[in-house]
């Protein structure tokens, strides 16, 4: 019977596996490399870029010389399905880390649409919860932590998300800030109940001691998991619970299977309709506004966007719509992927509409300036904000009700996040509108618009998606066994092997040669190459201490050194 050992990864005896099963596993865990496809499309050299990415590894134990097949932990449901299809018996050995239980004082009262996600996560132990912006992903994750009762690590990738997580932990779990662990840059403080860590900092710090401090790991914005940094960090922890939170699990580069294999499959999906019916979101109306912009496109996309953002007629059309909505008392978010575009639009808007207060929110602003703009926006002192990608993640201003997409986007996740910024309900907020400026005369931009249309339509999904996997049955297959890294070795009664005495020198090869100074026979621990002189101790000291000796030594070294090629 094959043993499948599950800890931070899956380990199996490579030699014992039949070839047919090996081939199926290899096929499932071999993905096309998007970087290779991109370089091929651009006709650029790709000598050192592999056509495929392999998510498995064959390694040999140095002590036992046994070959092991190492697989990502999230692949387990697929692996079991392959075993069942092959009608081959197997045994699941559970080496996931469970620590002594800790108690949390949770003040969270889950909403009706959140309850299934929380309950399924506790049963499944590993997997992804897909929930749109405004659904309370942080609240769901913290309630899972409270119910699991394990020391937890909350992973983020930006400072804004780290600070937001710390605030929510204080609010929902009643843990004082001083007791919350923080791993950021050179700062490493482990909390007794929960720790918030930056993925970039953890990549350099994860070791066995740190990995064994947590029984539960939550990855916020889990769609980043396919990135090497994220997958390495998450895969280092043998925690019993491994949960991912994301608004959309799909990636434009096609690497979302790696996210599933790193964390686990989708446990539960919350739709926008679920939130609308519960009054948690406002479904936006989408208005597509055609522009007259035209350009001869020659596969130079950055140049296309530069010319597009500088086009006077297109910018005037955007500003007219913004001014119209702002004067009507609405709160407008204008998004562009170019800082120069935001600054240009803001400058012209201030000149044409000085009575409406506006600001720029871009990455070039220092921390205090960004905070000032955010505070003014929260206090409803601003009606219009021109922003770049700094507003994609972590911008939580409920009263925003008008979104202007000033430059084209093709990333499904980015568009969903952007639209989500105006979907939160607020006092005196009755509707939400997205203005998307469509450049139909440029084929590549028209194709991107078709992608965005599909995303807008997806907001009207009518039912939650149920994952067909029976996670409860899967957990019942495990046989609990302590992971090798956490097993305490018992003291043996065998007498210890005596240590080598310092006086006992290790044997080494010795060479007997003649001193180049006096001709005396000497023993040296290296093989002479004949190019440089070798002296006995007396000759060496003499030559080092006299001017004549130093001159002779320099002259000899010049003669013996190889000539340089001209």
- List unreliable stretches of 5+ residues: 462-467, 485-492, 500-507, 545-549, 555-566
**CATH overall fold name of the largest domain:** Rossmann fold
Task: Provide the CATH top-level class of the largest domain.
Answer: Alpha Beta
User: What is the gyration radius calculated from CA atoms?
Assistant: 32 Å
CATH second-level architecture of the largest domain? 3-Layer(aba) Sandwich
Q: State the share of residues found in helices, binned by percent.
A: 25-40%
Strands of the widest sheet, in order across it, are 11-10-12-9-13-14-8-15
Tell me the structural class: alpha/beta
Biggest beta-sheet profile: 8 strands, mixed
Please give the domain count.
Answer: 4
Number of helices: 20
Strand elements, count:
24
Distance between the termini: 69 Å
Overall 3D form: globular
What percentage of the residues does DSSP assign to strands (E)?
Answer: 15-25%
For the record, what is the CATH homologous superfamily label of the largest domain?
A: P-loop containing nucleotide triphosphate hydrolases
Overall mean pLDDT score? 83
Structure, explained:
- The structure is a single chain.
- Helix 4 (115-124) crosses helix 5 and helix 5 packs across helix 6 (159-173).
- Mean pLDDT is 83; it is low at 462-467, 485-492, 500-507, 545-549 and 555-566.
- Helices cover 36% and strands 19% of the residues.
- It folds into four domains: 2-94, Translation Initiation Factor Eif1; 115-276 and 465-486, P-loop containing nucleotide triphosphate hydrolases (Rossmann fold), CATH 3.40.50; 284-458, P-loop containing nucleotide triphosphate hydrolases (Rossmann fold, 3-Layer(aba) Sandwich); 511-560, no CATH class.
- With 566 residues, it is an alpha/beta fold.
- An eight-stranded mixed beta sheet has the order 11-10-12-9-13-14-8-15.
- The chain is built from 20 helices and 24 strands.
